């Protein structure tokens, strides 16, 4: 006896989608702005804060170069500082530069502290290099976006730790420079948690920055590399310790769409990511949800990504995470494996043909279908795929092109009273011809009311 | 989109293949009982008119031959109601097979026959391998059309009327059309709905046009649309059947499969779907039954699997094992009395 086995042909409408939001170039090229936008869009979809941590960095200064004050044998009246706010300074007289502000030690026994400088902060030198280092840390902490701690000396170097005053990544674009160390702070994050599904599952997205250093991947201390938004996805059901990890390179225009249990961010040419707690069919939930996360970029030390994958393919042989019970098991390109056996490749379940589109005889429209996803029980092991559920606010068309004929007057794809934007296309030889689309409209009160009246 | 129910009687029964004329007589009784109109004798058999609930119509003739090149065979042939000269292929199916040796698993004496008012599915009640040299399965009928079958006001304003179907029927079987003797046909039996979602040798007629009547051979790679086929759910990803860890169908984590419309397509165009039928996303044993409970309406229906799920060879060294990922269920009625006219069990 089979209980309610029927294919859910209708799209899995979430009822609370932000719709497709364009992230313009001016935001998309700025790491911090891009992260802030992503965070804001997730919050619009009902994701809430589940933790945060301020960014950090490390720096060093040469002990031998640290100025010290000298107590005069006979007290003298301090004089005005000869350089003041605008005088020339030799680079070695500047102990630190943070966000464009130079920190300069002065001898308090000889000079009056210059105040009110726009780009220069004078702080008192101590009687020992260590005292000066302490004073430097206090000065930077007072003026900048960072709490700076002098943490001691190692060999010939003073050690400093920078911690952002801001709760997350907000100050990461403010450069820091001493004798050596982090070029900026990184690793600060906001962890956003999706609402809990009826099945008890949720996703967590940790938004943060890292310094990505070309083919060598992440530089934890940001000594080298470029400030880059970075995202880690974890599920409520556990899985791989670190979850799924991927940079979102701040290269320009992006689109993003979020719902309570799913989000997607993509562009035409750079990092893309879809993370979804799949919707199980009514009457068929088992524990928590199936999860699929797939993306197009790598942070591996080899730097080999699968750029453009999401916008080209409907199966994901690299850079993906998948699992059941809301557990995220990361299988990235680091393994450099390509597997044909479908025990680890999430893919879409659909009706289509290889080689030519499947069309309706009536209208020559592609067949529009639910976005059912096949998920491997454990992508790191031989484990047969199962039907994970449907992605939210998405449909699959049995064609790689636009819905021929289902076009409104503005030239946009139209289906079931909504407009749809193409997210991915199958283009690998041997694939069933198909494409994946995401609903463009936001769900507001009107939309919810309408769907309720329709019984949807 | 709901399944296409005729809401008319269906039958699924076993009929002994011999003696042949007794088989034809029993088959005739069965077909008439489910709504076929017997128009008269044809050779030693009968010819019929079948009418779908949409008003589409075709004719079918079934008789028995016993010639040196077609020994001890039934023949089924569909043809056009509007133009009887438009005929489909002849599909033979043998009147039983005796054991060639003790324990010969290919022997059979009985056919499983399923019919409703406009479709007929016949297959040997036979558990042995899927391809042999004896034809023993045939399917035909008038499917549910996705195009309008009666002119709408919009259609009548167009000349000629477009997007209309006034004729749609098909026939298929595992007969390869070759001569055969006591050892069977020359060449292998053809893939058909008894053992695949593809049909290799078939006739498909739409609006008086014979879209195809012949043998496509194996579906070709990468274009597999050249064969008449059921549009089964499959993975987007290429699934070569030569690899291990191949999934036997698709199920949810609770083990339940998906049931969905048995759409029929040819050259990439979906013409319609089978009446009183559905596909399952898992393989089932041939001729095994399954009950489906639909909670919203509290209705249970019983189905029988017509398809011996199996992969299909699409090249010399390449197979498509999606054939292992579906079943073709034919409605046999409710386990207990239920008003089928109230059923709309899908979606």
List its traits:
heterodimer, A: 456 residues, mainly beta, 7-stranded antiparallel beta sheet, 6-stranded antiparallel beta sheet, elongated, B: 347 residues, 5-stranded antiparallel beta sheet, 27 strands, 5% helix, globular, disordered C terminus
The assigned structural class of chain A equals mainly beta
Low-confidence stretches of chain A: 334-339
Structural class designation of chain B: mainly beta
Choose one word for the global shape of chain B.
Answer: globular
What is the first-to-last residue Cα distance of chain A?
28 Å
Order of helices and strands of chain B: EHEEEEEEEEEHEEEEEEEEEEEEEEEEE
Q: What's the total count of β strands of chain A? A: 31
Low-confidence stretches of chain B: 340-347
Task: Give a quick rundown of the structure.
The complex is a heterodimer of chains A (456) and B (347). Chain A is mainly beta.
């Amino acid at each position: 006896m089979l209980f309610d086995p029927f294919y859910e042909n209708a799209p899995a409408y979430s009822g609370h989608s932000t719709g497709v939001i364009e992230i313009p170039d001016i935001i998309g090229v700025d790491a911090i702005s891009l992260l802030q936008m992503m965070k804001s869009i997730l919050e619009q979809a009902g994701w809430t804060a589940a933790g945060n941590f301020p960014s950090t960095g490390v720096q060093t200064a040469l002990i031998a170069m640290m100025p010290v004050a000298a107590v005069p044998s006979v007290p003298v009246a301090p004089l005005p500082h000869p350089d003041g706010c605008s005088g020339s300074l030799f680079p070695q007289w500047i102990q630190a530069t943070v966000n464009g502000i130079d920190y300069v030690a002065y001898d308090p026994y000889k000079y009056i502290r210059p105040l009110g400088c726009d780009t220069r902060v004078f702080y008192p030198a101590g009687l020992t290099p260590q005292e000066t280092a302490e004073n430097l840390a206090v000065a930077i902490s007072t003026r900048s976006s960072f709490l700076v701690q002098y943490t001691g000396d190692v060999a010939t170097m003073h050690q400093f730790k920078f911690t952002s005053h801001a709760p997350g990544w907000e100050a990461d674009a403010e450069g820091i420079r001493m004798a050596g160390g982090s070029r900026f702070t990184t690793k600060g994050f906001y962890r956003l948690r999706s609402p809990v599904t009826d099945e008890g599952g949720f996703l967590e997205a940790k938004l943060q920055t890292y310094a990505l250093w070309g083919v060598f991947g992440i530089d934890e201390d940001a000594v080298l590399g470029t400030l880059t938004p970075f995202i880690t996805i974890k599920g409520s059901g556990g899985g791989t310790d670190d979850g799924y990890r991927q940079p979102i390179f701040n290269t320009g225009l992006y689109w993003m769409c979020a719902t309570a249990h799913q989000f997607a961010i993509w562009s035409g040419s750079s990092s893309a990511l879809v993370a979804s707690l799949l919707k199980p069919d009514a009457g068929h939930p088992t524990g928590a949800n199936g999860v699929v996360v797939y993306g197009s970029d790598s942070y591996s030390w080899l730097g080999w990504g699968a750029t453009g994958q999401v916008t080209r393919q409907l199966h994901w042989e690299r850079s993906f995470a998948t699992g059941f019970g809301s557990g995220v098991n990361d299988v990235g390109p680091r393994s450099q494996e390509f597997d044909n056996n479908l025990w680890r490749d999430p893919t879409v379940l659909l009706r289509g043909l290889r080689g030519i589109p499947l069309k309706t005889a009536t209208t020559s429209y592609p067949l529009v279908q639910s976005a059912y996803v096949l998920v491997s029980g454990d992508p790191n092991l031989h484990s047969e795929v199962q039907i994970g559920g449907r992605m939210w606010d998405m449909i699959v068309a049995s064609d790689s092109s636009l819905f021929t004929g289902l076009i409104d007057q503005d030239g946009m794809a139209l289906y079931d009273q909504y407009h749809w934007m193409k997210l991915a296309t199958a283009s690998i030889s041997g694939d069933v011809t198909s494409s994946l689309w995401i609903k463009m409209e936001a769900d507001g009160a009107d939309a919810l009311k309408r769907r309720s009246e329709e019984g949807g | 989109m709901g399944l296409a129910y005729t809401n008319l009687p269906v039958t699924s029964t076993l009929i002994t293949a011999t003696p042949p004329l007794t088989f034809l007589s029993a088959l005739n009784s069965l077909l008439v009982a489910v709504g076929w109109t017997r128009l008269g004798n044809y050779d030693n058999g009968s010819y019929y008119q079948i009418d779908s609930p949409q008003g589409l119509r075709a004719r079918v003739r079934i008789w028995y031959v016993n010639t040196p090149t077609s020994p001890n065979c039934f023949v089924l042939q569909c043809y056009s109601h509007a133009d009887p000269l438009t005929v489909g292929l002849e599909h033979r199916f043998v009147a039983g097979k005796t054991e060639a040796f003790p324990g010969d698993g290919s022997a059979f004496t009985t056919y499983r026959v399923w019919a409703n008012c406009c479709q007929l599915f016949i297959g040997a009640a036979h558990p042995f391998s899927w391809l042999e040299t004896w034809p023993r399965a045939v399917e035909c009928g008038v499917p549910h059309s996705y195009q309008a079958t009666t002119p709408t006001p919009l259609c009548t304003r167009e000349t000629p009327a477009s997007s209309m179907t006034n004729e749609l029927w098909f026939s298929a079987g595992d007969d390869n059309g070759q001569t055969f003797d006591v050892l069977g046909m020359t060449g292998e039996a053809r893939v058909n709905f008894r053992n695949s979602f593809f049909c290799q040798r078939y006739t498909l007629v739409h609006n008086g046009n014979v879209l195809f009547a012949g043998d496509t051979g194996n579906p070709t790679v990468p274009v597999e649309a050249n064969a008449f086929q059921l549009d089964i759910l499959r993975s987007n990803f290429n699934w070569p059947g030569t690899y291990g860890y191949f999934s036997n169908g698709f199920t949810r984590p609770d083990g339940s499969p998906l049931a969905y419309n048995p759409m029929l397509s040819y050259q990439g165009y979906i013409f319609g779907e089978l009446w009183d039928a559905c596909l399952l996303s898992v393989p089932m044993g041939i001729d095994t039954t399954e009950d489906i409970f639909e909670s919203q309406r509290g209705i249970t229906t019983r189905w029988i699997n017509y398809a011996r799920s199996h992969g299909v060879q699409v090249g010399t060294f390449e197979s498509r094992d999606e054939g292992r990922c579906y079943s073709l269920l034919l409605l046999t009625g409710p386990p207990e009395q239920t008003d089928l006219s109230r059923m709309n069990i899908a979606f």
